[in-house]
């Protein structure tokens, strides 16, 4: 499947140089990866799965507004701040 010629071609496209030993190692590793990925075709995907993980809208919690954290509590640990917000260095 993944031969030295293809490994060399991909290395050239990637502008990477490999020794002969490295190309052989890459060829072997890629061949194993491709063989493993080919096992995906062994799975039967024609039937619908018996487990359906859909969420019904009536099962979702209600969107109830809650009070926000007070601004003074949020800003109390800020190293730099003005009265209403964090201050950060100007970025141009």
What features would you describe in this structure?
The protein is an all-alpha fold and 92 residues long. It has a domain at 4-41. It contains three helices and no strands. The longest helix has 19 residues, at 20-38. The protein starts with a helix and ends in a 17-residue tail after the last helix. The mean pLDDT is 83.
Average pLDDT reading: 83
Q: Which spans have pLDDT < 50 for at least 5 consecutive residues?
A: none
The helix-and-strand class reads mainly alpha
What is the helix/strand order? HHH
Number of helical elements:
3
Major sheet attributes? none
The tally of beta strands, per DSSP, is 0
N- to C-terminal distance: 53 Å
Which outline best applies? flat
Give the amount of beta strand, in percent: under 5%
Radius of gyration: 29 Å
Helix content: 25-40%
Write the layout of secondary structure elements.
Layout (H helix, E strand, L loop, with lengths): L3 H10 L6 H19 L32 H5 L17
Helix pairs in contact: 1-2
